[in-house]
Please model this.
Amino acid sequence: MALSSTLLENAVDQLATLPGIGRRTAMRMALDLLRRDTTAVQRFAEAVRKLREEVRYCQDCCNISDQPVCGICSDKARDRGLICVVEDIRDVIAIENTRQFKGLYHVLGGVISPMDGIGPEDLRIGRLLERADGGEVREAVLALSATLEGDTTCFYLNKRLHERGVAVSMIARGISVGGDLEHVDELTLGRSIADRKPYEQSVRR
Amino acid sequence: MALSSTLLENAVDQLATLPGIGRRTAMRMALDLLRRDTTAVQRFAEAVRKLREEVRYCQDCCNISDQPVCGICSDKARDRGLICVVEDIRDVIAIENTRQFKGLYHVLGGVISPMDGIGPEDLRIGRLLERADGGEVREAVLALSATLEGDTTCFYLNKRLHERGVAVSMIARGISVGGDLEHVDELTLGRSIADRKPYEQSVRR
Model:
């Protein structure tokens, strides 16, 4: 579609770069922004610009943080010997919401993906190994996606962390809690049978 | 969800104000923006800010335009006696894409909606009536949504335009071209029977 204004054209082009947004939706967003006050739109643009310009990451776990060390890493009540390795900030939020994990985190910023040209050096793995070298870390829990890329990353991290005397575990894979058996895919179902646990252990929690 | 950074919190809040975007999607967008170059994000924010700050509307049809008079209004080949009245810019684009309309447009900027506190004075109806008073306009084609608000607006416009000696027509309502009868709702089907046309006229185009 050809638009009668290059300003609108530019804004639609930029909005369409957001993940999951096509040109039609971008157009709807642009028209919505046009209906707002100038100051409201300035506030919007400012929040986005500042996010990227002024963003800081925790020097220990690489989680996004306004302080040099994030709230989780500076919490004395947490188990400093246990580190949960995740892909991005969303995973930290999701795991925190479960209230099941009392250790620290390490945010990799992605997974190893040769297809996208992402190698170990593009992720925050160096900092993780430094923390492992520090001697305080007892166990690393790998909580990465159950994809080929996630598995590749787990394989690589296990090797590197094992050399440093850190025990490595992976989060359990199986059927969803509350899930219907008939809707579970074959791979997951097969895996959940292979990884079965004695009844007493399974119902404990 | 509580985030570890107010910068991120702000950006997610702002992105979630976009139409159809919830906090989960806004979070995904924010993380995507974080992965980009600072200059790319600046360009993004700038395009959005400029859109609202520097936007101009055509002085005749109120369509968005970088010039005082838009490309359609300044096109000498178009029929200046025929004006298609639409809700917003998207409708102009959609109708232009059909290549079936050779007249000019008038963009109202919405429809009359007492529920949302939008009256005739909140729309660009004054300018439309001025154009009608100019004497050049022969016919106004109302191409508004087939909703209660759209119909209310049509009723109001018909009255105002009729007083000024302008013929008023509405775009046809009926079943979609290529549409299956069994999926058509009852109101539309009833309307399409009431508005039936002689066979010779129907197949002409």
